[in-house]
Specification:
It contains 52 helices and two strands. It has 1054 residues and is mostly helical. The chain has a domain of 176 residues. Strands 1-2 form a two-stranded antiparallel sheet. This is Exportin-1/Importin-beta-like domain-containing protein.
């Protein structure tokens, strides 16, 4: 123990102490800590703290802490008593705050509480009384001990050795003491609020005397000050005002009625507190929050008085006080979310609604006359979040009582909350408010369903204007939200807004339908004007598009209103759907002039009406009038709306073969599809393929039926397949291949095949086998076209996309039947694009697109290794290194910016998926393999060299991607520890990274570069010792270099 200060100083204060020496010191200190013979020495040190450091004080307390695990089993009663009395005396010493550092003082207090946990209730039954007695002499210590006791007694740690019975007993002790603890805490908060809060400026925002919530401006603290009862000559006159007040409070009966106390201090918004009092309040509120989360909210706990006090503190929003306000709101939220309702709930609810309304009014008022934005824009976000939670809890728990209570001003509260909702500056806060509105509307809907028709109508009409106004505001917000929040936030807000609008539509369907329809027709007229040659401004078009999309989304979400009551709503729903179809047809005619988002939204809305279409078709079978209307719907739009057909075949899956119109569509499929756009053609062939490869909903297809379906599907596709093969393999094809009409026919056929493949891309074996058998004859012909159109970039893009999809969608089938053909095609393609040929393609139109699709094409083999991979992999690597990289990736040509990430990712997957080609281990067992065994080092180094060269460029994203790739390879394959990397690669990387750091050319990546270099160095510090020290540390002595090397070794060990 004599060496204790020296050891601690060496461990904490001397930077040169090695990690090995620190381990030795830790071992020695651990031994000293467990020797009970050292307790007298520790007592002596703690009794004379001025002669020792804080680290020594801390260690001495840990010696006592070692007694806790065997406190009851190995220590005598007298021994426990002596230790407890010593520590307690040390704790309550008047010089206690000056004797120890704060972390030592906290350790001592925590140790006392841990002892109390061991001894209560049998050996220290007066613990809480002893702690509460401190409130007259040291309120801060009293509160600190109460906070620790509440936390330690309530929440037992996992490493605790206490039995369940003792844990239950401790919680019971806390529960029994909770009213008294709360009483003390509230007394502290009340006294500070009454006497110490400094008012700055006006108490609250100006409010008209006629305001219905005028009562909300006169909240007072729930307790009277008792300082007047103390005479100047009292024995407590030497105490601080707070201590004298607490003494009076402590001596008053615990069960006195607190609810009868009058408020004496008005609410204060602009306020300040001394830091000492802020700490007292924060500790008090922490205690209250811990207790309110679980103790029974019943007598003798004065819950209403507690809430009144908490409401006073909940108003503090200034920066220095906002933590108090936030924690007060958290405490109130704990009470409300536990569904607390007192017997005299009228006063409680009135208190809450008035106070919340007053804060809402304050937050929505301006800071001063020169500022036109509300105060809430300057309020702490955590405070606003918890205040919004308070509103949500109040709505969910007490909205019914509030709206039925006379004089509760619930409607005024909702008006204020409406303003608060649409004044939010962050998407998170706005979404939270929308969720509260959704919850309230749901409560209204449930309540109205329990009423008779007359009462329900009278009840809903009270909220009609307000809720419809919310819908109007949400529509308006949609048209302007692109300037408020980013696209991801807008999507989320759009979803939540729709939830609210749909809920309002359940209450007032005709109003929401009319508003949505007016919004749709008004703005669609503007779209028509733009497409017919008139010129509304870009801002007007953006607003119109967003408004139409919002209306369409609403129509989609409320489609069930028409489906559930089809007969009664048919006239309106038919007019609505006809309007959609007319608008979509107009958009499709002018497709090239519009962004695709609007036609897509119209189509998605029609898809949501698929059940309505089904009902319509069924009704048309027996009703001639409906049948006429059904036939009069625009046939061209029905066929061109392929997404609707595809959605029906994928989701609803009716037996469409029984519908003559569908059978007619299939019989004319190729003619119809070839007269539509590319995207529509894709959807139509997906629809047709789904009919054969997807069973009717809830039906099962057996093997014999699969054979029949396959035969029928081949029969459907046979004319197109035959025409394609005969065209490509025809004797005159080489002479006519470059003719536009021939190229168009090939492209149309391939787009049809692509639609078929898209339909089964995510399906199982039988659907894929069905499509494979139908298209198998086209595979060899399609691949042969690469050579025919080797100089036509546009055709190459189409062919590469198709062959890539063909391999990926039918991987198992092609691996079984056509793997050699695919390998030969890849080899032919790489040979075709080598050298000058690649240069010519790049210089032509769509040059970068060809390179991008070539990378995707090569990835089909890279991502899925097979038996022949090792034969073609060297050629792929050579093509990447010698052709693609120097001509497309190297340099600063912005023409290929979008391709660089794809290229580097392909190289990464070459290494990852074919690791065994370079090393004698798969990735899964690379960590256990021989790191020295490297095969094909030349090719490995060629790929790594490309990655390294990215550090010399100016593409920040590429450098960051390269570092990520290296880190991933190190994590999966232990790259940084392999000799080939350590000897040939690491020195160059470190040099390059150091140059970048020293030249400060890429400051945005500074932290990432340092972390990256650090990972390489710590994997094998010899890299730095061998290369860096020799080049960069020439002025250092050998001893200094060795010391740096030793530090690196220590870092690696850690």
């Amino acid at each position: 123990m004599d060496q204790l200060p020296k050891l601690l100083n060496e461990y904490f204060e001397i930077p040169s102490t090695s990690s090995q020496r620190k381990q030795e010191i830790e071992s020695h200190l651990e031994s000293l800590r467990k020797q009970r013979s050292n307790i007298p020495v520790c007592k002596q040190i703690l009794q004379n703290p001025q002669s020792s450091t804080s680290y020594t004080h801390w260690f001495c307390l840990t010696v006592f802490e070692e007694l806790l695990p065997t406190w009851n089993s190995k220590m005598t009663v007298s021994g426990r008593q002596q230790v407890k009395e010593f520590l307690w005396t040390l704790l309550i010493n008047p010089q206690y705050p000056e004797m120890f550092a704060s972390f030592v003082a906290t350790k001592l207090a925590t140790l006392i509480v841990h002892i109390a946990r061991q001894e209560m209730p049998s050996e220290w039954p007066t613990f809480f009384e002893d702690v509460l007695a401190l409130q007259t002499t040291d309120p801060q210590l009293c509160l600190n001990l109460l906070k620790l006791a509440v936390e330690e007694f309530m929440f037992i740690r996992q490493d605790s050795n206490m039995i369940d019975m003792q844990q239950t007993q401790l919680k019971s002790i806390i529960a029994s003491r909770a009213p008294r603890i709360c009483h003390v805490v509230i007394q502290v908060l009340d006294h500070i609020y009454q006497t110490q809060v400094q008012r700055i400026g006006s108490n609250s925002p100006s409010v008209s005397s006629s305001t219905t919530l005028n009562v909300g401006t006169a909240f007072y603290s729930p307790y009277k000050s008792e300082l007047a009862s103390l005479s100047p000559g009292s024995k407590t006159s030497d105490l601080s005002p707070l201590n004298r007040h607490l003494l009076n409070s402590y001596e008053s009966p615990l069960n006195r009625s607190l609810l009868d106390d009058a408020h004496t201090v008005p609410l204060v918004y602009n306020a300040s507190l001394d830091s000492h009092y802020i700490t007292l309040c924060q500790t008090s509120l922490d205690i209250m929050h811990s207790l309110l989360s679980w103790i029974p909210l019943e007598d003798p706990l004065p819950v209403q008085s507690i809430v009144k006090t908490l409401l006073c503190y909940s108003q503090f929003t200034d920066d220095s006080m906002s933590n108090l306000g936030s924690q007060s709101l958290s405490c109130i939220n704990e009470v409300l979310q536990r569904k607390y309702t007192p017997q005299g709930h009228n006063e409680f609810i009135s208190l809450l609604i008035n106070h919340i309304s007053e804060i809402l009014r304050y937050l929505m008022s301006s800071q001063d006359s020169s500022v036109d934005h509300p105060r809430l824009q300057d309020i702490d976000s955590d405070y606003l979040c918890k205040f919004t939670d308070l509103i949500g809890h109040f709505i969910s728990q007490h909205s019914y009582k509030a709206e039925t209570e006379n004089g509760s001003h619930f409607s005024e509260f909702l008006r204020l909350f409406y303003n608060y909702t649409f004044a939010q500056q962050s998407s998170e806060d706005f979404l939270a408010c929308l969720d509260i509105w959704k919850q309230f509307i749901g409560i209204m809907l449930d309540r109205s369903k329990k009423m008779d028709s007359t009462a329900s109508t009278e009840y809903l009409i009270r909220y009609h204007g307000g809720l419809v106004g919310i819908v109007d505001a949400l529509f308006k917000l949609k048209s302007s939200s692109s300037t408020i929040w980013n696209s991801e936030e807008r999507k989320l807000i759009e979803q939540h807004s729709l939830d609210v609008i749909v809920n309002v539509a359940d209450l007032f369907p005709s109003d929401i339908l009319q508003r949505s329809f007016d919004l749709f027709t008004t703005h669609s007229t503007t779209i028509f004007q733009r497409l017919d040659g008139q010129s509304p401004t870009a801002d007007t078009m953006r607003e119109c598009t967003l408004s139409i999309e919002m209306a369409l989304l609403v129509f989609g979400r409320i489609s069930h209103l028409f489906t559930n009551d089809f007969d009664r709503t048919f006239a309106a729903s038919f007019a609505l759907v006809d309007q959609f179809c007319t608008f979509q047809e107009f958009l499709l005619r002018h497709n090239v002039m519009l962004n695709e988002s609007l036609p897509t939204t119209v189509m998605n809305t029609l898809i949501l009406y698929v059940h309505w279409f089904t009902n319509f078709h069924q009704a048309a079978q027996t009703n001639s009038e409906m049948s006429s209307k059904f036939d009069n719907l625009n046939q061209l739009l029905q066929f061109s709306s392929s997404r609707l057909l595809r959605a029906m075949s994928e989701t609803v899956r009716p037996d469409l073969f029984k519908i003559p119109h569908v059978v007619k569509c299939l019989s004319e499929l190729h003619n119809i599809a070839f007269n539509t756009t590319s995207s529509t053609r894709d959807g139509l062939y997906q629809f047709a393929t789904n009919l054969f490869v997807l069973p009717v909903l809830n039906a099962k297809i057996f093997e014999e039926e699969w054979k029949e379906r396959s035969r029928m599907y081949q029969q459907l596709m046979q004319p197109l397949v035959t025409a394609f093969v005969e065209l490509v393999q025809g004797p005159n094809f080489s002479n006519t291949a470059q003719q536009p009409q021939i190229q168009q026919q090939i492209v149309l056929s391939i787009e049809a095949f692509v639609g078929c493949l898209h339909a089964i891309e995510a399906q199982g074996t039988f659907p894929k086998e069905t499509v494979f058998e139908a298209l198998q004859a086209t595979i060899a012909s399609s691949m042969s076209l690469l050579n025919v159109y080797s100089n036509d970039n546009a055709m190459l893009c189409v062919l590469l996309d198709y062959i890539t999809l063909l391999f990926n969608a039918l991987r198992a089938q092609n691996a079984r039947e056509n793997m050699d053909l695919f390998t030969q095609t890849i080899q032919l393609f790489m040979q075709m694009l080598k050298g000058e040929s690649l240069t010519k393609h790049i210089q032509q139109n769509l040059g970068s697109a060809v390179v991008e699709k070539a990378i995707n094409f090569l990835s089909t083999t890279i991502d899925h290794p097979h038996k022949g991979s090792s034969t073609i992999l060297p050629q792929i690597i050579s093509f990447c290194v010698q052709d693609l990289y120097p001509q497309c990736i190297d340099g600063n040509n912005t023409f290929f910016d979008s391709i660089r990430p794809l290229f580097y990712d392909m190289l990464y997957r070459i290494l990852l998926n074919h690791w065994r080609y370079f090393f004698n281990a798969r990735v899964g067992i690379a960590l256990g393999g021989d790191p020295t065994d490297c095969k094909n080092e030349t090719e490995f180094m060629a790929i790594i060299q490309i990655f390294m060269l990215s550090f010399q460029g100016t593409h920040v994203d590429m450098i960051k991607q390269t570092m990520t790739i290296f880190e991933q390879l190190n994590e999966k394959c232990r790259l940084f520890s392999r000799p080939v990397f350590v000897q040939n690669i690491a020195p160059s990387i470190i040099k390059c990274v150091l140059d970048i750091l020293l030249q400060k050319t890429l400051e945005l990546l500074r932290d990432d570069l340092i972390q990256f270099m650090g990972n390489i160095v710590t994997a094998d510090p010899s890299v730095v010792v061998t290369h860096f020290f020799i080049e960069k540390c020439k002025s250092f002595t050998k001893e200094q270099q060795n010391m740096l090397g030793s530090r690196l070794e220590n870092i690696k060990v850690l």
